[in-house]
Amino acid sequence: xxxxxxxxxxxxxxxxxxxxxxxxxxxxxxxxxxxxxxxxxxxxxxxxxxxxxxxxxxxxxxxxxxxxxxxxxxxxxxxxxxxxxxxxxxxxxxxxxxxxxxxxxxxxxxxxxxxxxxxxxxxxxxxxxxxxxxxxxxxxxxxxxxxxxxxxxxxxxxxxxxxxxxxxxxxxxxxxxxxxxxxxxxxxxxxxxxxxxxxxxxxxxxxxxxxxxxxxxxxxxxxxxxxxxxxxxxxxxxxxxxxxxxxxxxxxxxxxxxxxxxxxxxxxxxxxxxxxxxxxxxxxxxxxxxxxxxxxxxxxxxxxxxxxxxxxxxxxxxxxxxxxxxxxxxxxxxxxxxxxxxxxx
Length: 345
Ligand SMILES: [Cu+2]
Fold this sequence. Notes:
Immunoglobulin-like, elongated
């Protein structure tokens, strides 16, 4: 007994650990996430109802002195009619009404979009023009800011949004089905090849919110993370203005050599650095890679060591990912290439 109790007690922190992480639906930080949390806590009512029904069934089954089945046929329910009315109509009506309205409340957290044929709702549609387009790739996220015209902001994996206001996101896929999920802010919405989906998120406080692709999409699905950074609107605008600039030109001999190594290497076939000849679109945009906290779709810290490891052998860090091993650089070239990437702030 003592040992069993100790064992159960030792498991307890495991359950509690789940509640402490940021990536959790119970850690709601925006209106949509709160709607979901409300709906799920309301659903606990059904747990109570199930217990009551089970209790009633057990009580009947265990009742002593059971006669033959015939004696128990409900010929005259008598006072039972009130129970039928209450238990069969009134209570279900109440419970389902609660879920109905909570469900309607949750529906309002999805934008209605003009492009969406039958869902076109005129004025309402105009209001929900997407602010951001996210395209899922095996196994990273391409992010376009659609705000101002002639402002070309394309980035990857680290998604910044202004806090305290709704942000409409259009979701597409370049290959297979992915699912966008930042549990503290909203539910999951799939990215489907050939189709367009929408989600509206709002963060009630600035902060880093982590998320995850939530639809199995191949070998590196588990390393298809999302880092969503909500900032005060002024800081966000500053960030966006910086992202709109072309890549920082190198100024010292090392970073200049690094840029040359980058442009002479295979990198340009797959990656873009705006302002240079590198215009590949197969991999993440690297124009401001130095400003990102992590690499490999938020799987590893963005520092010299991991960048060197990533460039020479991305396959060892993220096996199966679509960036090949690159072995052509010597030590000096590699270090200068990394120095160049890190100054792309
Ligand atoms: Cu996935």
